[in-house]
């Protein structure tokens, strides 16, 4: 706008102010000049006007109390100008198509291009009108500053620039003369839809029009919010919901789960980008919620269960990127519905896989009898060199049973490794997902009643020497993994019983690969279960250490009191530490050849300890003896029971035989031990005795004779008891009976311990507390706890109070 400046005088320069209108100047002329100036501004001829002069016109009208005339007159001029802008600039650009056709796709090709161009032309017209109007309003505001200050503010009226915005809304955006509003909203929606369909639009034009809507506010009576929020956003969200609801159904029909999730991920990113670049960021939360509500929430289970591509397929193929995308998207579903659905499906899948592992083990076990027949003990011939081979099968039933047990544990460990990797990589180590994974493993592991036995066998296989070369690091890794599975066991007391048996065999047979590894394993168990759980295991190590020390002392004793004819090594075991099958008193009449050595050790032991009683056990002992056959002599390594039987044939002649009953009478061995011993001597690979009649099984009617014609290329031969480390059905029943009996005592001890501390407790509280305290070892049934309470009441440890639902401890 041009400024009127007075001519500079010579000498001292001076700015000459404009002439002050006299009071006689008619207001009508003042308004006429000011109105002409405003029209010139609107016609883009502001450069010809004087700012000071027209400012003074506005000043005088307000000063002479004609502010209302000025205020209303300017409003009328603005309205007139806006109506002209609508007629000249906007109406001619109305899109011929009229608007969107519902929420679906708008079509492609030439039609889409034409629609995009028409919409862009119309939006540019809106933008042009806005820029024309706001440019004029800024200049009008400048010359009417005094009106804003002296009249509008004083009378509580909007400033003239704000009036211009309001008039733009009523005469352009919401024009009553032309359907501009309808075309504008539908065109904006059409442009968005075209881009969703893959067409190219001019984003800057859409952005400028949405900015106009964001700068215009509706009247206070309508909420005072922006036109964007009241007019555009609700319709945009409604159309978006319809579109994505239809798209979800279409995409699920034609795509697999991974493709669908990628589509959803892309749509979320596209809409987020859209709100940043040409809509409003305030729309983003509602739009994202809408996308999730239409693309994910109704189809959570459908995606997970999709045949050939759902969660199971992703897990089978280790599709970590797809699984991570699945987790990330499901995490967005509100109220944890997505994560809950994922956790439930994941747990079901793991349980199904675990069920297959369990069934596979059952099938392998059912392939042959689980009881021992003929063959070397796997523990003492780990590489299978001494196993009897059959023409029909290459592995004995014993080996099959052990391999089945080890295979089960390895399968479970492999499954755990798989899902641990998926948890960290795809599920971001989510603790809730981890809980579901652990619950699934706990469920199917405990569904296998032989899990405690199998886990102990697996540890035994890793800790004993001679199985296969393993580094300390490999052993440590295997033990660490088995501890993870150990945590899942509910019957930890049953595992303890098996572990003690296996540890006892490793120690007594000197089969441990590393003492350090053995002690590390016990330390790990102590950290998991506490001192009471491992107290007896540590006692077994102590017995073995003291026995080794005693061996040196016994040799010194012999030097002083005379040596014995055989080299005797004795392990002295504390009965309370070792498992019952090891220290249980078993009848055996030792031959006279062994008696002097046993008596000498007895005297030695009595000289060092008073008040202790030794009971000789031969069931886990071994012996080395040289036997002369017809062709040559062989050094035999066999069990103590086998030596006792073999010595019966020491003075036999060719053709002499002993019946089963005679051998039993002479050795006093139990039938089970005797049968196993005779099988190892007469039915295994190295048959130093001959059975009459020949056969694989030992019967009470059989006879046995010394096999003088026995030959073998080996100078030293191992003949160990035929035994299977996997329990037979009968042995498992016996083990379960012992476990149940021990649990009775543990439940009673727990009840007494709790009641001694609490003095009085209600029935439900007592049962709950007992179950909680014993849960680390096993899960006691409610009926077991009730029976033990009744037993303690009968033995007067407890009594019922007057309130029949409570108990009192009796000191």
UniProtKB/TrEMBL annotation:
Residue spans of biased composition, Basic residues class: 9-19
Keyword Ubl conjugation assigned: yes
InterPro entries referenced in this protein's UniProt entry, alphabetically: Cullin (IPR045093), Cullin-like_AB (IPR059120), Cullin_CS (IPR016157), Cullin_homology (IPR016158), Cullin_homology_sf (IPR036317), Cullin_N (IPR001373), Cullin_neddylation_domain (IPR019559), Cullin_repeat-like_dom_sf (IPR016159)
Comp. bias regions, Basic and acidic residues: 357-366
Segments of this protein annotated with the region Disordered: 1-30, 357-396
Cullin family profile domain residues: 450-682
UniProt keyword annotations, A-Z: Ubl conjugation
SUPFAM superfamilies: Cullin homology domain (SSF75632), Cullin repeat-like (SSF74788), Winged helix' DNA-binding domain (SSF46785)
One Pfam family matching this protein: Cullin_Nedd8
Family named by the database record: Belongs to the cullin family.
Name used for this protein in its record: Cullin family profile domain-containing protein
Native species: Kwoniella shivajii
């Amino acid at each position: 706008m041009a400024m009127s400046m007075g001519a500079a005088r010579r000498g001292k320069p001076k700015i000459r102010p404009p002439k002050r209108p006299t009071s006689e100047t008619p207001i009508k002329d003042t308004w006429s000049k000011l109105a002409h100036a405003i029209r010139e501004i609107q016609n883009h001829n502001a450069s010809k006007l004087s700012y000071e002069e027209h400012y003074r016109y506005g000043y005088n009208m307000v000063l002479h109390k004609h502010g209302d005339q000025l205020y209303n007159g300017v409003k009328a001029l603005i309205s007139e100008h806006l109506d002209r802008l609508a007629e000249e600039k906007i109406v001619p650009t109305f899109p011929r198509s009229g608007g969107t056709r519902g929420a679906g796709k708008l079509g492609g090709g030439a039609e889409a291009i034409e629609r995009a161009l028409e919409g862009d032309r119309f939006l540019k017209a809106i933008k042009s009108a806005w820029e024309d109007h706001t440019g004029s309003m800024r200049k009008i505001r400048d010359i009417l500053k005094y009106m804003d200050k002296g009249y509008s503010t004083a009378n509580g009226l909007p400033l003239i620039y704000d009036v211009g915005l309001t008039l733009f809304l009523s005469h352009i955006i919401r024009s009553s003369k032309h359907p501009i509003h309808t075309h504008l909203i539908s065109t904006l929606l059409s442009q968005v839809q075209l881009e969703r369909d893959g067409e190219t639009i001019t984003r800057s034009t859409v952005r400028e029009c949405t900015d106009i809507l964001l700068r215009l506010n509706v009247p206070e009576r309508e909420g005072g919010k922006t036109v964007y929020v009241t007019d555009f956003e609700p319709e945009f969200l409604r159309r978006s919901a319809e579109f994505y609801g239809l798209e979800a159904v279409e995409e699920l029909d034609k795509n697999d789960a991974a493709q669908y999730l990628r589509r959803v991920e892309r749509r979320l990113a596209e809409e987020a980008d859209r709100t940043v670049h040409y809509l409003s960021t305030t729309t983003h939360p509602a739009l994202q919620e809408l996308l999730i509500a239409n693309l994910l929430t109704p189809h959570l289970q459908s995606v997970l269960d999709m045949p050939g591509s759902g969660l199971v397929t992703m897990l089978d193929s280790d599709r970590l990127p797809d699984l991570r995308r699945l987790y990330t998207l499901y995490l967005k579903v509100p109220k944890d519905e997505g994560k809950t659905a994922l956790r439930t499906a994941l747990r079901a899948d793991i349980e199904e896989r675990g069920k297959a592992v369990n069934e596979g083990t059952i099938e392998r076990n059912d392939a042959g009898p689980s009881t021992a027949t003929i063959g070397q003990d796997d523990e003492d011939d780990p590489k299978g060199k001494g196993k009897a081979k059959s023409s029909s099968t290459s592995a004995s039933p014993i080996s099959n049973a052990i391999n089945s047990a080890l295979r089960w544990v390895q399968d479970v460990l492999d499954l755990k490794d798989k899902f641990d990797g998926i948890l960290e990589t795809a599920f971001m180590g989510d603790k809730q997902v981890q809980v579901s994974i652990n619950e699934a493993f706990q469920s199917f592991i405990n569904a296998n009643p032989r899990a405690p036995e199998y886990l102990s066998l697996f540890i035994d296989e890793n800790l004993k020497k001679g199985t296969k070369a393993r580094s300390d690091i490999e052993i440590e890794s295997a033990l660490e993994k088995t501890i993870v599975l150990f945590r899942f066991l509910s019957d930890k007391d049953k595992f303890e019983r098996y572990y003690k048996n296996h540890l006892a065999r490793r120690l007594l047979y000197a089969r441990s690969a590393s003492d350090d590894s053995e002690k590390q394993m016990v330390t790990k168990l102590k950290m998991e279960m506490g001192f009471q759980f491992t107290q007896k295991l540590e006692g077994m190590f102590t017995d073995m250490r003291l026995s080794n020390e005693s061996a040196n002392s016994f040799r010194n004793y012999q030097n002083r009191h005379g040596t014995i004819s055989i080299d005797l090594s004795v392990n002295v075991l504390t009965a309370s530490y070792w498992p019952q099958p090891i220290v249980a008193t078993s009848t055996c009449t030792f031959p006279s050849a062994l008696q002097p050595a046993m008596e000498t050790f007895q005297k030695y032991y009595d000289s060092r300890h008073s008040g202790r009683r030794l009971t000789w056990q031969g069931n886990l002992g071994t012996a080395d003896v040289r036997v002369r056959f017809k062709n040559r002599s062989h050094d035999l390594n066999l069990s103590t029971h086998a030596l006792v039987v073999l010595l019966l044939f020491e003075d036999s002649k060719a053709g002499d035989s002993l019946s089963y009953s005679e051998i039993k009478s002479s050795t006093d061995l139990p039938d089970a031990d005797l049968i196993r011993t005779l099988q190892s001597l007469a039915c295994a690979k190295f048959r130093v005795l001959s059975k009459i009649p020949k056969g694989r099984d030992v019967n009470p009617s059989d006879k046995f004779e010394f096999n003088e014609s026995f030959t073998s290329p080996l100078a030293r031969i191992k003949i160990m008891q035929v035994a299977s480390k996997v329990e037979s059905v009968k042995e498992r029943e016996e083990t379960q009976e012992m476990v149940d009996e021990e649990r009775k005592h543990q439940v009673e001890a727990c009840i007494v311990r709790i009641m001694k501390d609490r003095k009085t407790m209600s029935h439900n509280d007592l049962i709950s507390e007992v179950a909680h305290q014993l849960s680390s070892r096993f899960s006691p049934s409610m009926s077991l706890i009730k029976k033990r309470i009744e037993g303690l009441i009968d033995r007067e440890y407890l009594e019922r109070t007057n309130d029949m639902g409570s108990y009192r401890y009796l000191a």
